Amino acid sequence: MNSTETKLRKAETEDKNIIWGILQQAIERRRQDGSTQWQQGYPNLGTVENDIEKEAGYVMTIDEEVAVYVALILNDEPAYNNIEGAWLSNGEFVVVHRVAVDERFAGQGMVKKLFDHIEEFTKSKGIQSIKVDTNYDNTAMLKILESKGYAYCGEVFLAGGIRKAFEKIII
Predict the structure, then answer these.
(1) Share of the chain above pLDDT 90, in %
(2) Cα separation values, 132 from 3, 12, 145, 155, 167, Å
(3) CATH code, domain carrying 16
(4) Tens of pLDDT along 29-70?
(5) Residues near 154 by Cβ (< 8 Å), separated by ≥ 6?
(6) What confidence tens digit (pLDDT) does each residue in 72-91 have?
(7) Cβ distance 89 to 159 under 8 Å?
(8) What is the mean pLDDT of the chain?
(9) Structurally, how many domains does the chain consist of?
(10) DSSP-assigned states of every residue in 65-123
(11) Which pLDDT score, from 0 to 100, does residue 3 have?
(12) Which domain holds residue 29?
């Protein structure tokens, strides 16, 4: 097997239709799994445009082909101020939102690779921790967070629902 090169880079305006296509696949997968997550018109194309404009949209590429989309937001998630529980830290943090994998790359451990890149990104910026939330019924993501050493911190209310919140101290 040829070794593939994975990279995390900022999403560009010209990526937006590819990204929106990937998100639509993910929305449909969540629906087929019987999940309530992402079924109320969020995220949408406007979300993607907003992420890119704010420089929060990132893509993980495999040999320069966009495989995964993620929004990485620095220190800013108002919903995280009201946690039913407690965060591990109150320093600077990177918020991980809107993780979606192109179905051509599904089932290949892409999200685990993505989290490795996010940890590198966080370290490189000298930021203390990564915070992430997911739906209680997103078993795939819950398993990945557990395998990557994220601690369950409690619940947050976000996008109209209760989410499980996790944190990992990076530095």
Answers:
(1) 83
(2) 30, 23, 9, 11, 6
(3) 3.40.630.30
(4) 989 988 888 888 889 999 999 999 999 999 999 999 999 999
(5) 83, 84, 85, 86, 165
(6) 999 999 999 999 999 999 99
(7) no
(8) 94
(9) 1
(10) EEEEEEEEEES--GGGGS-EE--S--S-EEEEEEEEE-GGGTTSSHHHHHHHHHHHHHH
(11) 67
(12) 6-169
Contacts of 3 (CB under 8 A, 6+ apart): none
Total-model pTM? 0.93
Average pLDDT for residues 98-111, to the nearest whole number? 94
Read off the tokens for 153: 């911190």
Asked if residue 146 lies in contact with residue 128, where contact means CB atoms within 8 angstroms, the answer is no
Which conformational region is residue 169 in: left (phi greater than 0), alpha (psi within -120 to 50 degrees), or beta? beta
Span 111-156, pLDDT tens digits: 999 999 999 999 999 999 999 999 998 888 999 999 999 999 999 9
Locate tokens 């989410």: which residue? 163
CA 126 vs CA 3, 113, 170: distances in Å: 30, 20, 9
Does residue 1 sit within a domain? no
**Would you state the structure tokens that stand for residue 101, as one six-digit string?**
């994998």
Enter the tokens of residue 29: 């997968």
Question: Which letter, b or e, does each residue of 106-118 get, where b requires 16 or more Cβ atoms within 10 Å of its Cβ?
Answer: eeeebbebbbebb
